[in-house]
Amino acid sequence: MRGFLLGLGVATMVAALAAPLAAQTGVPMDRDWDPMARDFNRQEGGADGLPNPLPRGLVGAINSVAAVDRELERRELSAKERGSLLMYRAMLNLTSGNQAQADRDIERALRTDPTLKYDLLASRARDMAASGRTQPAIDLVDRALQDQPGYAPLITTRGQARMIQGDYALALADFNLNADTSDVARRLRAQAYYTNGNYKEAVGDLGYLLQTGSSVSRPIHLVLWRYANNVKLRRDARGLLTSDLRSYGEPEAWPTPIARFLAGRITVGELEIAAETDKDARQSDGRCLASYFMAMDTVRQGNQARARELLRLTQARCGIAHFANWAAAAELKRLR
Questions:
Q1: CB-CB neighbours of 142 under 10 Å
Q2: Of 110, 134, 139, 197, which is most buried by a Cβ count within 10 Å?
Q3: In angstroms, rounded to a whole number, what is the distance separating the alpha carbons of residues 211 and 297?
Q4: Do residues 139 and 167 make contact, with C-beta atoms less than 8 angstroms apart?
Q5: φ and ψ at 63, to 5 degrees?
Q6: Please, are residues 125 and 102 in contact by the beta-carbon 8 Å criterion?
Q7: Residue 56: what pLDDT?
Q8: What is the 3-state secondary structure (H, E, C) of the chain?
Q9: How far apart are CA 77 and CA 68, in angstroms?
Q10: pLDDT of 160-203, one tens digit each?
């Protein structure tokens, strides 16, 4: 079993282990350590920054084997919590060269929570899809689902791979299965709704996440994507964006300059300068997200020829797993 886990790669293990700790357990976590939060941040065009590699427990950072041991003494831990902590301790032992203890921790973790191996497989599938190997990623998930039918992280991961593939309707079907119980699935469903042309439904999901204060996405990202949907609905997208900024705040950090541009408060030239010079923008493909929303501003104004140019530029600038890439591909099909 240890060989199987190491075959997935250390980075993949770290990514897979954090999501259960942060999203599926009661163990408090620093947002920047949660790879699912960072995945959404990257996909939406937020800055990664320097991730804090440490989860947090009830008494502070879990930064050592001893700290994990203290957390494991808590009797109220669920099987998911205990298994995730054991796997994190295995990672600490692996990095310190204590392979024998890591072996024992891995075996014990998988006995405590057998679903951990499916979290690892889901993480591996997401990496494959992001590198362009979408069908192998879907095949991997489908095989895992034969062993663990209905497991939500696997189904959501398959939906992400299908979005990259351009199968928006199938992706939407996957996200629908868990959107009522998972903000992760609901956020992805909002993006699938948008690419599929279901703008009212997308606005509904984005509004829900804003109103409930979900931590899966920063409010500024949700506000920007609600603007894009409102453009397609032929609503007063600029006026509604201005109202959203009053209601949900206007942080100084990127991508707020995009919102200011869309609200008519800075010029396109000033936005381009911000996208190229802002520290957070440089870390997060800021030019990618900027070109997409510049395109949507031209759609709002009815300039389809310029919109097509900017959407093609967005595709050139954005990785295939980026929300803006998915949206640009869908919008180009509609503008033909």
A1: 12
A2: 134
A3: 25
A4: no
A5: -115, 15
A6: no
A7: 60
A8: CHHHHHHHCHHHHHHHHHHHHHHCCCCCCCHHHCHHHHHHHHHHCCCCCCCCCCCEECCEECCCHHHHHHHHCCCCCCHHHHHHHHHHHHHHHHHCCCHHHHHHHHHHHHHHCCCHHHHHHHHHHHHHHHCCCHHHHHHHHHHHHHHCCCCHHHHHHHHHHHHHHCCHHHHHHHHHCCCCCCHHHHHHHHHHHHHHCCHHHHHHHHHHHHHCCCCCCCHHHHHHHHHHHHHHCCCCHHHHHHHHHHHHCCCCCCCHHHHHHHCCCCCHHHHHHHHHHCHHHHHCCHHHHHHHHHHHHHHHHCCHHHHHHHHHHHHHHCCCCCHHHHHHHHHHHHCC
A9: 12
A10: 999 999 999 999 999 999 999 999 999 999 999 999 999 999 99
Residue with tokens 């997060």: 284
- As a whole number of angstroms, the distance between CA 29 and CA 55 comes to 5
Per residue in 189-246, pLDDT (tens digit) is 999 999 999 999 999 999 999 999 998 899 999 999 999 999 999 999 999 999 999 9
pTM equals 0.80
Partners of residue 57 on adjacent β-strands: 60
pLDDT tens for 124-136 read 899 899 999 999 9
Query: Tokens 């709704």 correspond to what residue?
Result: 193
pLDDT at 17 over 60: no
